[in-house]
Amino acid sequence: MERFQAYVDANRTRFLEELKELCAQPTIAAQGVGLEETARWLENRLQRLGARVQRFVMDGSPPVLYAELGAGERTLLIYNHYDVQPPEPLEEWHTPPFEPTIQDGRLVARGVADNKGDLLCRLQALEAYQETIGPLPIRVRFVIEGEEEIGSPHLILFAEQHRDLLQADGCLWESGGKDAGRRFVLTLGVKGICYVELTVRTAASDLHSSWGGVIPNAAWRLVWALQTLKDANERILVDGFMDHVRPPTAQERAHLATLPFDEAQIKDNFGFADFVQGLSGVDLLVQHFYGPTCTICGLKAGYQGQGSKTVLPCVASAKVDFRLVPDLTPELVLELLRAHLDRRGFQDIQITDLGGTRPARSSLDDPFVRLCAEVARLTYGAEPVIYPTSPGSGPLDSLCRDVPTVMAGVSHANARVHAPNENIFLDDYFQGIRFVGELVRRFAAP
Ligand SMILES: [Zn+2]
Predict the structure, then answer these.
(1) 167 CA distance to ligand 1 centroid (A)?
(2) Mean of the pLDDT values across residues 212-232?
């Protein structure tokens, strides 16, 4: 790897200029800006690496790029996206979001952490490998979409139609980097999500609240229904729901005990007094990583304006999300929720499905996970922090079903992802190139 590293060092300026060029292109999925241009830029970049590139457009979506390069017995799947979040509010940026700027050892630009840095560092690592070590000893398959920041509405369709292109022995997912203690982090999956809106109507129109003693009130009706979903001890009560939750093994619990998790710092950051149920230590982490959630995200009913208005609301609604762990699925949750409400006489509560993804989690013991940890140790000279899953969600299951998957990237704890002044450290970026180079080499013959 010495020649690899020498090549990366010698090309540092060019690599950085290329990253700036990629980040200078606004590619805002939410606003439909610049997606085709960047897809073409990437297509060209991949072809220069010797990749065979295909583009897939579904119902007028921005192209999903699929690229294949290298040859060998083993296949590494790599997932990234070329779209970014809108840069607003613009006035909070110290430098323009699409004029990448180097400041104090960091590159500041919209999308550099999420996730153009991850993407380009992987491409540059493959270039360095081919230029110094030789042809790739494995097959690499890239899937790069342009709609991640708006929820990947077409990725599932792509995955269903092209399962054959997604066969692999391991997958490197987007995102990841270093935590607040500058420790390198590997994350082994995501929670699923089932997002619903619950709506109830109790009369044709809002009424004078003097009718409150004799005419049903939609707000109360909704509150009563919601109360059956979760109790004051934070237990989720949806019939059958918890039967599908796989509890952590003794080994997984033991692993949680090794994770850095600064409870006091988190309380301080978010300004709350205590975790629910006074949770702390391993029990807190079990709940955070291995537990599902049932969250009221929003409530709407009746009068919300200034002062008092004596009104009996006829409609009430709540947005509720469930974060899912194996073996819950959004389809199952919708079914359980309907049956649960019906059984309690809440047939009038309408459930609107606002979308969902399945959970996916690789095992701590998986050889690919262990390989990534070993490569991290080599690259960063320290033990990586391994999170069993992200508490968030993503389309990981639709792409990587049955393929062990690790998130590892070049971001950091204060990268200001989705916010003004998004940034990465240049040193992290170049270490990331080294990580990918090492991974390719060792993945060939584990
Ligand atoms: Zn994002």
Answers:
(1) 25
(2) 98
CB neighbours (10 Å) of residue 316? 24
What is the model's pTM?
0.93
Identify the CA nearest to 394 among candidates 115, 69, 70, 32: 115
- Cα(114) to centroid(ligand 1), Å: 5
- Mean pLDDT for 95-99 is 98
Could you tell me the distance, in angstroms and rounded to a whole number, from the CA of residue 390 to the centre of ligand 1? Answer: 14
Of the CATH numbers 3.40.190.10, 1.25.40.340, 3.30.70.360, 3.30.70.270, which one belongs to the domain with range 192-245+291-357?
3.30.70.360
The residues placing their C-beta within 5 Å of ligand 1, an ion, are 114
Q: Looking at residues 124-131, what average pLDDT do you find?
A: 98
- Residue 84 Cα to ligand 1 middle (Å): 7
243 CA → ligand 1 middle, Å: 32
Length of the chain: 446
Structure-block tokens of residue 244: 């599908």
- 446: pLDDT strictly greater than 80: no
What architecture is the 2-188+362-444 domain classified under in CATH? Answer: 3-Layer(aba) Sandwich (3.40)
Report pLDDT for 445: 81
